[in-house]
């Protein structure tokens, strides 16, 4: 009889292919959204062609939320304090988000305005959905302004009703809300006493099942659940939490991993995604990520997945405004998108995200004295003057973001 090891015995948090999977899923989102943005793939998200319950982008988002649920729960359990956990999450999410907001409002959208108007004049003074309010309305991750100054009106996306410069970013609010939920569970001790955390996660999975089976009206009980996308995102995150809490009990088997991926593909094609498929896909992901260790160095130099995810839609939207899909065809369009988002994501990581991550464990002297702990210098580059210059782009971005928030609020 072959002994089956547990996922906890096999999973190595440093030697896995999760970085590759996140990169691949970011492009699954991009390729899926290319349909409604550029009018290729029949003008719809991949999956809509055969009536799938969710698009290819939705499949990828399921994977993102599952992996986040697992890894973020692990982070909270191992964190030195709730404050440090929250600081890590803020440092990872917000700086890159601020950057894409500023780049979109003051580089990409102006180029779209110039293409349609033949001039940059009038862009900043446009009264509706002003670029001067775009950062202020969206910097918290709660999106209150989708369009900018009427730009992109000729694109296939706007004609379908997607008048937005970042149709992928709506998930970030829910992602961060899940982070806060894990923080709350950690503070009350529900993660260390894992049965309590498991009950909470299991309860969310049960509600998701009720929603998938159309049992009852959850929205009439809890207003938040009137939006079905809430549970569609929370469920894979909760499943990731459950897997992490009982990682020593989850079986790890190649046959099971392959079978789960096949089941996931079948459910995506024929139905049952939100009942079975998403959980099969989640297991298949962590099986692949754990088993295929040859790709562990994929993001060793730069983790581009987040930058690709949040820049994909804006870049595609701008290129669609310039008519690239019609002029060069869908293949060339996607090729150009792939190149541009890689360049953007690399610059975002090296100039903004990496310096922010170097501050994850930073403890300045003044705060260390107050807390009576040892100070900790930023990681990754020493303490000299030249080493500190790597923080200049990040500091400038934070200043610009703060100014634009004030301008937007005053306006």
Automatic annotation (TrEMBL):
<keyword id="KW-1133">Transmembrane helix</keyword>
<keyword id="KW-0812">Transmembrane</keyword>
<feature type="transmembrane region" description="Helical">
    <location>
        <begin position="331"/>
        <end position="352"/>
    </location>
</feature>
<feature type="transmembrane region" description="Helical">
    <location>
        <begin position="20"/>
        <end position="42"/>
    </location>
</feature>
<feature type="domain" description="Acyltransferase 3">
    <location>
        <begin position="17"/>
        <end position="341"/>
    </location>
</feature>
<feature type="transmembrane region" description="Helical">
    <location>
        <begin position="259"/>
        <end position="286"/>
    </location>
</feature>
<feature type="transmembrane region" description="Helical">
    <location>
        <begin position="391"/>
        <end position="410"/>
    </location>
</feature>
<feature type="transmembrane region" description="Helical">
    <location>
        <begin position="230"/>
        <end position="247"/>
    </location>
</feature>
<dbReference type="Pfam" id="PF01757">
    <property type="entry name" value="Acyl_transf_3"/>
</dbReference>
<protein>
    <submittedName>
        <fullName>Peptidoglycan/LPS O-acetylase OafA/YrhL</fullName>
    </submittedName>
</protein>
<keyword id="KW-0472">Membrane</keyword>
<feature type="transmembrane region" description="Helical">
    <location>
        <begin position="195"/>
        <end position="215"/>
    </location>
</feature>
<feature type="transmembrane region" description="Helical">
    <location>
        <begin position="169"/>
        <end position="188"/>
    </location>
</feature>
<feature type="transmembrane region" description="Helical">
    <location>
        <begin position="54"/>
        <end position="72"/>
    </location>
</feature>
<dbReference type="InterPro" id="IPR050879">
    <property type="entry name" value="Acyltransferase_3"/>
</dbReference>
<dbReference type="InterPro" id="IPR002656">
    <property type="entry name" value="Acyl_transf_3_dom"/>
</dbReference>
<feature type="transmembrane region" description="Helical">
    <location>
        <begin position="93"/>
        <end position="113"/>
    </location>
</feature>
<feature type="transmembrane region" description="Helical">
    <location>
        <begin position="306"/>
        <end position="324"/>
    </location>
</feature>
